[in-house]
Amino acid sequence: MSARDPEPGRRIGDTLLQVQHISLAFGGVKALTDISFDVREHEIRAIIGPNGAGKSSMLNCINGVYSPQQGEIRFSGSTFRKMDPHKAATMGIARTFQNIALFKGMSVLDNIMTGRNLKMRSNLLAQALYIGPNRQEELAHREKVEQIIDFLQIESVRKTPVGRLPYGVQKRVELGRALAAEPRLLLLDEPMAGMNIEEKQDMCRFILDVNDEFGTTIVLIEHDMGVVMDISDRVVVLDYGKKIGDGTPAEVRANQAVIDAYLGVSH
Amino acid sequence: MQFFFEVLIGGLLAGVMYSLVALGFVLIYKASGVFNFAQGAMVFFAALTFVGVQEKTGLPFWAVLPITLAVMVLLGILTERIVLRPLVNQPQITLFMATIGLAFFIEGLAQLIWGTEVRRLDLGIQDEPIAVMMDNFDMMVSSFDVTAAVVAGVLVAVLAVFFNKTRIGRALRAVADDHQAALAVGIPLKQIWAIVWSVAGFVALVAGLLWGARNGVQFALTFVALKALPVLILGGFESILGAIVGGLIIGAAEKLAEVYLGPMVGGGIEGWFAYMLALLFLLVRPEGLFGERRIDRV
Amino acid sequence: MLYREAGQFRTSYAADQQLLPIRQDRILMAVLLAVAFVGVPLFASDYWLTALLTPFLVFALAALGLNILTGYAGQLSLGTAAFMAVGAFAAYNFQLRVPGMPILGSFVLGGLTAAVVGVAFGLPSLRIKGFYLAVATLAAQFFIPWLLVKVPWFTNNSSSGVITSQPIVILGYVFDTPGSKYLLVLAIVALMALAAKNLVRSRIGRAWMAVRDMDVAAEVIGIRIMRTKLIAFAVSSFYCGVAGALYAYAYLGSVEPDGFNLDLSFRILFMIIIGGVGSILGSFLGAAFITLLPIFLDVLLVDGALALGLNLPSGATSMVQLVVFGALIIFFLIVEPHGLARLWQIGKEKLRLWPFPY
Prior knowledge:
The structure holds three protein chains of three kinds.
Chain A: E1 15-26, E2 29-40, E3 44-48, H1 55-62, E4 70-75, E5 78-80, H2 85-90, E6 93-95, H3 108-114, H4 124-129, H5 133-152, H6 167-180, E7 185-189, H7 197-214, E8 217-221, H8 225-231, E9 234-239, E10 242-247, H9 249-254, H10 256-263
Helix pairs in contact in A: 3-6, 5-6
Chain B: H1 2-32, H2 39-57, H3 61-84, H4 92-114, H5 131-137, H6 143-165, H7 167-177, H8 179-184, H9 189-215, H10 221-235, H11 240-265, H12 273-284
Helix pairs in contact in B: 1-6, 1-7, 1-9, 1-10, 1-11, 2-3, 2-4, 2-9, 2-10, 3-9, 6-7, 6-9, 7-9, 10-11, 10-12
Chain C: H1 13-16, H2 23-43, H3 46-72, H4 80-97, H5 103-122, H6 130-150, E1 163-164, E2 168-170, E3 173-175, H7 178-200, H8 203-213, H9 215-221, H10 225-252, E4 254-255, H11 262-275, H12 280-308, H13 316-335, H14 339-353
Antiparallel strand pairs in C: 1-4, 2-3
C-alpha cells in the first residue's frame, strides 16, 4: 500500500506549526540537535525513529513540557522561544502520552469532561451552588462529551473508573480526553503501542476519522511502519536526536540514511 | 563574641542529636521509600523499654542494652511484616499515613506497658561544663553534650561504612534504587527490609538513651522526632550526609534564634523556628541540600 | 428487593447529573434530613446534643475541609487544627471589634481569614509534593497557635490566652440551648456539605482530581496547577475556619490557642482515612466513628474492668485509645483504603442484587 490519496473535502492547508532549529539537552546528554520541520494544516505528520531517537522529547518541546535550549516554535502565526503547557493548551494543542496518563481515580466521563476544562467559565461560587449558568454549562459540555463518547464507542463504560478498564480502552479514553478540547493540533505519542491488530485497526480508523471529520491536524509517533506508511501524509525521521529524513512515506522509504538507521550500520 | 560561640557550640551539639534521629528516617526512606513518621515513637519506646527493664530487673547497663536492642529489633521486624509488607506498591502518601497510625500505636503500647510517669535515666555521664573550655576560652560547654555528640558521630561513621563498604550495604543501596531490579538480581528484599527496620530500631535506641538521659524519659521524647523533620527537609530525605549537615544547621540556627531573636518576639520560638527555616529553604531548593533533583519523564 | 433502580430511566443528561439519581437514595436522604432536623431536637437529651451530635457535626465539617484538600486535590496537610484556630480567633475578633457585626458574617469572615492564611501556607505546595508538603504544613501547625498566644490583641489581652465566645444571636433570636445550637450547626454543615458536593462534581473538582492523579497530564490539558492547588488550599481552609468558629461558638464556648494542637489535626486526618479519602459521605462517617469510638471504648473498658474485677491504672483508657486508633488506621489503610464510604458503596451494590446475587 502507498500513502493514501487525498480524499475529497480534505485539503492540506498552509503551515500550522513550524519547528525551527530545536536543540534540547539534559545535563550533558543531547536529546535533540538542531531539529527543524513543519506541519501543515489538516495533514497527518508522523515522527518515526529507533528507540531513544528523541521522538517523545520532540513532542514535549512542542507543547511546552520541556524547554529546549535553542530554537523556536511557530504556531499559527506566532513565534515562541519556548512553549508552556498552559499556553499550548489554550492555543489548541492537545496530546496523548506514551504511557497512559489518565486520571485513574476518575470515571471515563469525568476524564473526558476534564478535557473541556479550558472551555468552561463558571466561577467558584456558581459551581458551589450548581444552579443557573453553571448547571447549563455542565449540561452543554456533557452533550459535547457524549458525542465524543459515541464517536469512540465507549458508551458502556462511561461511568467506570478508568483504572479498571483494559489497556486498549484506556488508550481510547485518552484520545477522547484530548479530543474534548477540540484541538487544532493533536499530538499522539504511540497511540497504538502494545495493541493487538484489531485494536490497531480501530485506532487507525479513529485517527483518520478525527482528521477527516474535524479537520484536526495530527502529529503522531508510531513504531509500526505499516501504519505509518498507510495513514500519514509526510514523515520525519529522527535518529540519535538528529533529523535524518523528511518527506512523503515513499521518499522516506527510499532514503539511504533512513534505511541505514533501521537496518543498522555502524556509526 | 564568646557568648556567641558558646551558643553556637551548644546549638551544634544539640544539632548532632537531631541528626541522630533524622538518620533513622533516612535509613528507612532510602531502603524502602517509606517516610517513617513513627521514628519518634520508636525513640520513645526504646528509652521507655530500657528504663522499664532496668527498673524491673535491676540489671546493669550492659545487660539491659542487649535486651532492649532485641526488643527494638523485634519491633522493627514486626512493623515490616505486619504494617509495611501488605502496603508494598501503595502510594508513598498512604505509607506515610500508615506510619502515623503506627506512631500512635507504639506510643500507646509503650505507656500501657510501662506507665505514663516521667522517669530519670542515668547513663553515668556527667553533665558539667568542661574545665578545659571553661579555663581557656571561658565558655560553658557541657560534657554530656560533647559525649552525646561523640557517640552520635561514631554511630554515623559506622553506618556510613556499613552502607558503603559491606555487602549488605550494597544490597541496601540497590534496593533503594529500584525494588524490582534488586529483586531480579536475587537480593532478598524482605530480609533487607527487616535489617533496615532493625537498624532503625537500633538508631532509635541510641537516640532514646541520649535524649532520655538529658530530658528524662517521657512522652515529650516523641516531639524530638518532630524536630528531625525540618532537618530532613533541609538535608534531603535520601542523604546521610544531608541528615548530619541539616541537623547541625537546624541545631545551631535554632539556638542562635532562641537566644538573639527569641527575646524580641516574646520567646517560645523553638517550637516552630526550625519549620519556618525549612519552609523558606524549600522555596529556594525544594530537593534539599543533598537531595536529587528529579526530571519528570512523560 | 427494596433497593432497585430497574425501571427508573434517566432520559436526559440533566436527570443523569442529579445528586441522587436513584429514587431510593432520595427517599433515604429525605428521611435522614427529617430525623436530623426534626426528630433529633425533639427526642435527644442535652448530653447527646452537646457531647456527641454538635461535636460530630463540627468535626465532620473540618474533615470535609481536609478531604477537599487531601482527598480531592491530593495535598496532605497536618495543619488542619491551625486553620481551625484562625477561623475561631478571627470570628471572635470580628465579632468583638466590628460593631453590629452579624454572627453569621463573623463566621464567614473567619472562614475567609483562614482561607487567606491557608493559601499562604499552601504556597510551598507549588514546589513540593507528598510528605514534603505534609512536613511543611506542620510549620503552620506550630507557628499559628504560638502567634495567637504571643500577640495579646488576638485574644483581647486575655492573660491565659483563653477566649470566651460571644452569644450567638441571629435576628434577635438567641441560640443558647443545646438544641438550638445543634440546629444552627446542622443547618450550616448541611449547606456547606451540599456546596462541597457541588464543587467536586463541577469543573474545579475535576481539576483537583486531575492534579491529584496525574499533574503533568493535567497541565497539558490546560489546567493551571498552581491556581488549582491554591484554590484547594483556600476552599479547604475556609471549611476548616468555619468549623473552627463553630467549634468555639457552638461546641466549647471558650477556647485557647493551644487547644488547636497537632493532636486535633491528626484526629481529623484519621476521620478522613477511616471515613474515606476523597468522599463527602466519608467525612461524615469518619467524624461519627472517631467521635463515638472513645466513648464506646470508655464504656467497654470501665465495665469490662468492673466485670473482671480488675483495677485499671490511671490513664489506661487514653492509652488504649491511642493503640486502637493507631491499629485502626493501619487496618483501614491495608484492608480498605477508601474507608467506610467504600464499604457503604459495596453494601449498596450488594443490596441491588440481593437476594439473587448471580
